[in-house]
Amino acid sequence: MSTILYARVSTTEQNLDHQLTQAQAAGFQIDEVIADHGVSGVSTTLAERPQGKRLFDKLRSGDTLVVRWIDRLGRNYQDVTDVVRQFLRGGVVIRTVINAMTFDGSTRDPMQQAVRDSLLSFLAAMAQAQAEVTREAQKAGIEAARGDGEKYRGKKPSYDRATFDLVCDHLASGAGASSIAKLAGLSRQTVLRIRTDPANAETSLRKWGL
To answer: Distance between CA 80 and CA 41 in Å, rounded?
Structure first.
């Protein structure tokens, strides 16, 4: 039985090593890393990604698939739930680094299956909702940047793109502002500002070319 980490690195600011380090720090003993680079979880399904396709052939009953969060598998509700349930039916165990969630494909108890599937549906819906918020924030940021021209850019944000994405991922998972601030190396107030107005946070990043 193998433990495989699947990572989706969608932008140049995100880092594969960071996802692997997070998994190892959480206690996972990773046998193999499979990663897709430069792909979007919104516009591409797992089966459409070059390395994502490998998971369907690679994973066997009893294997463990580790992901930083459910959104690494995709940010479309239907696709994520279909893919995860396909893996679960094959006896694969899926575990997340964030919040240490476990979805066990070997369980045959109807009640446990119902609870598992309900939680999966909720997390997949959260992933899609967060993607839609981020997309709207990016759109607002682009429009604001176009309108501002060479105007004053304001105070430079204390976070970069990778940190912003990290904060958004953890906010989507329901983590508290204090724990996110500690993990991201930001002040609690900064995390709260991002949570309250992600569009404005996105605009600040774009104004500064971050």
So the answer is: 10
* Summary mean pLDDT of the chain: 83
Domain boundary among 84, 109, 124: 124
With pLDDT > 70 as the criterion, what percentage of the chain qualifies? 85
Q: Where do we find the tokens 């045959």?
A: 108
Taking only the tens place, the pLDDT of each residue in 29-63 is 999 999 988 776 666 888 888 898 999 989 999 99
Angle at 49 between CA 119 and CA 205, to 5 degrees: 75
Measured CA to CA, the distance from residue 180 to residue 114 in angstroms comes to 30
* pTM for this model (two decimals): 0.62
Question: Do 61 and 30 contact (CB within 8 A), yes or no?
Answer: no
Contact (Cβ atoms closer than 8 angstroms) between residue 34 and residue 54: yes
Q: Using an 8 Å Cβ cutoff, are 15 and 77 in contact? A: no
Indicate the residue among 94, 124, 154 that finishes a domain: 124
Torsion of CA 122, 126, 132, 134, to 10 degrees: -170
Residue 85, domain extent: 3-124
